[in-house]
């Protein structure tokens, strides 16, 4: 990670930590849960070496970014996109448009960024989480509970303090190891009191792409910040739904490349493959140019397949 610079920028009422490397057109990397800027470490170095300026912030509530309110009501897509626009205005005032790369929750944030401010985005590479058009007839949590039940991870995340207490009993390190090594394409359920379902005494074998040092970095940050900030994004789902009523049926009108692993639980969710491959995705994102499904890859794809993903990003954005 030598050569990556770190700074804190005051934006939109918070103090945002940003990792940065390289010179040239800006590529903004947006992480998901339970990630940090660190999830993009391989891509930052790659893009900097290929003539781009990589920017990877810790989103509000995460890592070394501080000053965000604790209430979930302050974690809507409007807040988070507001942070990113303010960040770009502060650190890249000379660039009207930037390239955007998102994963997991970062992909959701990126979709919203392109909906709200397409004038600021040159092209988008999104991973794992497809575009999810607003359904005006049903709130997200109501739909998830009806389909997956109360043990579904997003439903378990809703009660403030509840899952945090369970994570505290399990231990930060083990929680992060369980999440980041997840390779089961089935829906993720976390039954109360059983959570990941494994014995706390059973060692978790890290895959070749994830080192002890990587886990230690994540642990050091989450032990300081806690999980609540990241969980608040899930807790704002219904509020997001209410606030985005004006964007019902709106299209994402920027050039898009979408990448997902065939073992990713998001790709194997009900209806996802049909939406991606049978016209729905292209209808809602008319400038969708490529869909890449990587065989044998799971959810944390940019860490699992760093060279391949970095090249996919570069090959797409250098066209513009």
UniProtKB/TrEMBL annotation:
Domain AB hydrolase-1: 25-131
GO molecular function: epoxide hydrolase activity
Listed transmembrane segments: none
Pfam families on file: Abhydrolase_1
Top-level enzyme category: hydrolase
Keyword Hydrolase: yes
Keywords assigned by UniProt, alphabetized: Hydrolase
Pathway(s) of this molecule: Secondary metabolite biosynthesis; terpenoid biosynthesis
Function of the protein: Epoxide hydrolase involved in the biosynthesis of cucurbitacin and mogroside tetracyclic triterpene natural products (e.g. siamenoside I and mogrosides IV, V and VI). Cucurbitacins have cytotoxic properties and exhibit deterrent taste as a defense barrier against herbivores. Mogrosides are nonsugar highly oxygenated compounds used as high-intensity zero-calorie sweeteners; they also possess pharmacological properties such as regulating immunity, lowering blood sugar and lipid levels, protecting the liver, and acting as antioxidants and antitumor agents.
Name of the protein: soluble epoxide hydrolase
Protein's organism: Nyssa sinensis
């Amino acid at each position: 990670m030598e050569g990556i610079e770190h700074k804190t920028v005051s934006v939109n009422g918070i103090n945002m930590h940003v990792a940065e490397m390289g010179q040239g057109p800006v590529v903004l990397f947006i992480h998901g849960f339970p990630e940090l800027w660190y999830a993009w470490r391989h891509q930052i170095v790659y893009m900097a070496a290929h003539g781009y300026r990589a920017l990877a912030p810790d989103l509000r509530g995460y890592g070394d970014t501080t000053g965000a309110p604790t209430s979930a009501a302050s974690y809507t897509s409007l807040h988070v996109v507001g942070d990113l626009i303010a960040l770009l205005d502060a650190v890249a005032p000379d660039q009207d448009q930037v390239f955007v790369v998102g994963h997991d929750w970062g992909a959701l944030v990126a979709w919203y960024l392109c909906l709200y401010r397409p004038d600021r985005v040159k092209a988008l590479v999104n991973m794992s989480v497809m575009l999810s058009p607003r359904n005006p007839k049903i709130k997200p949590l109501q739909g998830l509970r009806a389909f997956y039940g109360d043990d579904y991870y997003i439903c378990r995340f809703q009660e403030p303090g509840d899952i945090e207490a369970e994570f505290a009993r399990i231990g930060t390190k083990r929680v992060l190891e369980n999440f980041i090594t997840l390779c089961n394409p089935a829906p993720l359920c976390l039954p109360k009191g059983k959570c990941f379902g494994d014995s706390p005494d059973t060692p978790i074998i890290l895959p070749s792409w994830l080192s002890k040092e990587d886990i230690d970095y994540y642990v050091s940050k989450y032990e300081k910040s806690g999980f609540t900030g990241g969980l608040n994004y899930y807790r704002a789902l219904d509020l997001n739904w209410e606030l985005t009523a004006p964007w019902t049926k709106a299209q994402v009108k920027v050039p898009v490349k979408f990448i997902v692993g065939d073992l990713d639980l998001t790709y194997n969710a009900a209806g996802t493959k049909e939406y991606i491959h049978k016209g729905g995705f292209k209808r809602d994102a008319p400038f969708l140019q490529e869909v890449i499904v990587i065989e044998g890859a799971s959810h944390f794809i940019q860490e699992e397949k760093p060279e391949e993903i970095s090249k996919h990003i570069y090959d797409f954005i250098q066209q513009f």
